[in-house]
Write a structure and sequence with these properties.
2 domains, two-stranded antiparallel ribbon, 245 residues, Arc Repressor Mutant, subunit A, Four Helix Bundle (Hemerythrin (Met), subunit A), mainly alpha
Length: 245
C-alpha cells in the first residue's frame, strides 16, 4: 500500500501567495504584502513564511528587495529557471547528452509545423535578421552559434505553444554541445546556414508540412554529424555546469 505525503506547510503557503497575487491582478515589478501582513493573512509562523518565500525566489517568481520599502517583488520566471531544474534532474538521473538530442529530434519538427501556422511577420523579420547575422559571421564561431540559438528560440516561441517554447529555450544553452566538446568547423556552419534559409522559406510561405520536414532534416543532420564526429560526447553524462549563459 502506498501513501501520498502531504505537501510541506511552506509549499502550501507559497502556492497561496502566488494564487492571491494572480487573483489580485499583480504584474511583474509589483510589491507583495509585507512579512507582517503575510503572517497575519496566512496564519503561519515566520520560519514557514520565509521558507515559502525562498521557494518562490528559487523558482524565479519573486525577488527580495532589501531596505526600507522593500520586500518580496513579483517577477516573471524565465526559461533559465526551468533549465536549472532540468539540468539537475538529468544529472541526478545520470542522463547522457544523447537524451537532449533525442528530445530535440522529437519536438522541433512539430514546433516547426506549429510555427508555420502561428508565426507573425515581426517574428519572420527577426528570423531573417538572425540568418543575415549568421551569414556575416561565418568566420566567427561564437557569434554564429549565438545567432543559431536565437533562430531556434524565435521559432519555438512563435509556435503558439508556451510549453514547447519554454522546453526548447531551456535547453538551447547546451543543445549545440560546445560545452562538452562538439565543434563546428566552417563547412558545418555553412550547412547550418543553408538549413536555416530553407526553414525560413517554408515558414514565410506558412507551409506547415514543409516547415516540419525542413526542421526534421536539420535536426537529424545535426544528430548524424554528432554521431559520426563526436560519438563519445553523446555518451557523456550531463552535469549542471553544462548549462550555458
Amino acid at each position: 500500500m502506498t501513501t501520498t505525503r502531504a505537501p510541506k506547510a511552506a509549499m502550501l503557503v507559497a502556492q497561496r501567495i502566488l494564487r492571491d497575487a494572480m487573483r489580485a491582478g499583480l504584474s511583474p515589478g509589483d510589491l507583495l504584502p509585507s512579512e507582517r501582513g503575510m503572517l497575519e493573512q496566512y496564519e503561519t509562523g515566520r520560519g514557514t513564511l520565509r521558507e515559502a518565500l525562498r521557494l518562490l525566489e528559487f523558482q524565479g517568481v519573486i525577488t527580495l528587495k532589501p531596505g526600507p520599502g522593500g520586500g518580496p517583488v513579483l517577477t516573471s520566471p524565465t526559461a533559465s529557471n526551468l533549465a536549472n531544474t532540468l539540468m539537475l534532474l538529468m544529472q541526478l538521473n545520470h542522463a547522457q547528452y544523447r537524451t537532449i538530442v533525442e528530445v530535440r529530434n522529437a519536438v522541433e519538427p512539430m514546433i516547426g509545423k506549429l510555427a508555420a501556422q502561428h508565426i507573425t511577420d515581426a517574428q519572420l523579420d527577426q528570423l531573417a535578421g538572425t540568418i543575415e547575422s549568421m551569414r556575416c559571421s561565418l568566420d566567427d564561431r561564437e557569434l554564429f552559434l549565438e545567432e543559431n540559438k536565437k533562430f531556434h528560440d524565435i521559432i519555438a516561441w512563435s509556435s503558439g505553444n508556451v510549453l514547447f517554447a519554454c522546453l526548447v529555450e531551456s535547453l538551447l544553452g547546451i543543445l549545440d554541445g560546445t560545452a562538452i566538446g562538439i565543434d563546428y568547423p566552417s563547412h558545418r556552419r555553412s550547412a547550418i546556414l543553408k538549413a536555416h534559409e530553407e526553414i525560413y522559406q517554408a515558414l514565410a510561405k506558412r507551409d506547415a508540412a514543409s516547415s516540419e520536414e525542413r526542421m526534421r532534416e536539420h535536426v537529424e543532420a545535426y544528430t548524424r554529424y554528432a554521431m559520426k564526429k563526436f560519438p563519445h560526447v553523446l555518451d557523456q553524462a550531463i552535469t549542471w555546469n553544462h548549462l550555458l549563459g
